[in-house]
User: What shape does this take?
Amino acid sequence: MSTLKDILNGLKTTIELNSKVVSVSTAVPELTKDMRDLDRRQVRVETIIEIARPDGAALRIAKPASGTE
Assistant: This one.
C-alpha cells in the first residue's frame, strides 16, 4: 500500500509541475515583448542624451576595459 501511495504522490507532483511549466511558458512571449520595448526606450533615451550634450561626446555607460585608453 505504501508503494501505491508513493506512486500517486509522484503523479500528483508531476501534474502540478506540468501546470506550472505551462503557465510559465505562456508568459515568456509577453516578457520577451516587454524586454524589447524596454530596450527600444533605452536606445531613445541614450540618443536624446547624446544629442543634448554640448560637447557632442558619445555617452559611455560602462567604463572601457583597462589597457584600451
